[in-house]
Design brief:
Layout lengths: L8 E5 L8 H16 L4 H9 L1 E5 L4 H8 L20 H5 L41 H11 L3 E6 L6 E4 L12 H15 L3 E3 H4 L7 H9 L2 E6 L14 H9 L9 H12 L6 E6 L5 E11 L11 E11 L5 E6 L4 E2 L6 E2 L3 E5 L5 E5 L6 E5 L12
Parallel strand pairs: 1-2, 1-3, 3-6, 4-5, 7-15
Antiparallel strand pairs: 4-6, 7-10, 8-9, 8-13, 11-12, 13-14
Length: 385
């Protein structure tokens, strides 16, 4: 499949938190299974024909290396020691710096600085010096902004819950709460875990992956808390056989399968009823770009500080097929509000050519479709199909 084929994306990530080793294994195993079974397993083959799978096994590589190497096994955060300074290997591995670092899952832009995050550099939920201050999370922002991620799973351990937004008390009820919660309940059923908002079934957290994904693009994003039932040193990463059980839903985790949840999530990602579709015509092999610029707001930092509006852009591309007709699976242009259970009246802009010499505005809701006539674009390269 071409990277720019206009297909919806299922994003699967692991190891935001360094000591949560099983999450890397789950993401890798599902990606490997998809590769191995494409063409032989009808369900997986169909999903890969209709959508695109992006897997990020380790969001926090430096922290993971420190933890997995048993240098600081219970490391949660990344290796940041001093704000704005790249840490050296010696600083990362120094036991005196164990408590320092930024929690990657408190460093995302939307609602950054709110409840459930801390300015204390030694706190386990330290949010960093600014939204997206950490390279790991800037990478995730760039990856998500360049793809039409319709469903995302951000894997964690070990607290036996399936979480969705809102994750903090200063968020509204999501504008898409019916479709969003319905998918949460399906995923929770695959895992036999309670499913719902962070604020109702877990605790408060701000600057999370779910917040930026949902309020930034309308992505239906979730956190499963996996491999429960262990304490002490095994709490966040139990013996490996239990990781296998959780993936398959066998033995210790009979009936609780993250593999099943991934298949459900991928199926939801390719379902047009859960995102939007733009169809149109353009000269064959034309390169089209769809984009949108807006701002995301932080929280009022610690309840009293200022709210900062952060410039944000979504920009993806596709190449028009040889037929001259295209179908583009995208997130809704009507983006969820950070302040009310409502959608913002925003539009996508579709352009073509290096200078964007034709631009069409398209407004489309979740589950809806729209048409874009790009026939005035210049013809693409003269390459036979």
């Amino acid at each position: 499949m071409h990277a720019d084929a206009g297909k919806p994306v299922f994003l699967n990530t692991g190891v935001h938190h360094a000591r949560e080793w099983p999450t890397a294994e789950f993401v890798l195993e599902f990606a490997w299974e998809a590769l191995q079974r494409d063409g032989s397993d009808p369900r997986i083959t169909s999903l890969l024909e209709r959508g695109k799978l992006i897997s990020v096994p380790v969001v926090n590589p430096d922290g993971y290396d420190i933890s997995r190497s048993l240098i600081q096994e219970q490391k949660r955060k990344n290796c940041r020691v001093n704000p704005g300074e790249i840490p050296t290997e010696a600083e990362c591995t120094d036991p005196a710096n164990f408590s320092f670092g930024v929690d990657p899952n408190r460093n995302y832009g939307a609602f950054w600085g709110g409840p459930g995050s801390s300015a204390d550099r030694t706190a386990s939920n330290h949010r960093g010096e600014a939204p997206w201050s950490e390279p790991e999370i800037r990478n995730m922002r760039a990856l998500s902004a360049a793809n039409q991620v319709t469903v995302a799973i951000n894997n964690h351990t070990p607290d036996e819950r399936l979480l969705r937004a809102p994750s903090s008390s200063n968020e509204p009820i999501p504008a898409d709460v019916v479709v969003y919660d319905a998918l949460a309940q399906l995923l929770g059923a695959d895992l036999q875990f309670p499913a719902g908002p962070w604020t109702e079934i877990y605790y408060e957290a701000s600057g999370t992956a779910e917040q930026t994904a949902y309020y930034g693009a309308g992505t239906l994003a979730f956190t499963p808390e996996l491999t429960p039932g262990f304490g002490g040193a095994d709490r966040f990463h139990p013996p490996y056989e239990y990781v296998v059980d959780q993936y398959l839903g066998t033995d210790f985790y009979e009936g609780s399968s993250i593999r099943a949840a991934y298949l459900t999530a991928f199926g939801a990602a390719v379902d047009p009823a859960r995102h939007s579709v733009i169809r149109g015509k353009a000269p064959r092999r034309t390169r089209l770009t769809i984009s949108k610029r807006f701002t995301l707001d932080t929280s009022a930092v610690d309840g009293t500080g200022p709210v900062t509006s952060l410039p944000h852009e979504l920009r993806t591309t596709m190449t028009v097929p040889w037929s001259g007709r295209f179908t583009w699976h995208v997130n809704p242009s009507l983006r969820p509000s950070q302040y009310a259970s409502a959608h913002l009246a925003e539009s996508w802009t579709i352009t073509c050519g290096r200078g964007g010499n034709r631009a069409v505005q398209v407004t489309v809701a979740r589950g809806g479709s729209a048409y874009a006539d790009m026939s005035g674009c210049p013809r693409g390269p003269k390459v036979e199909p």
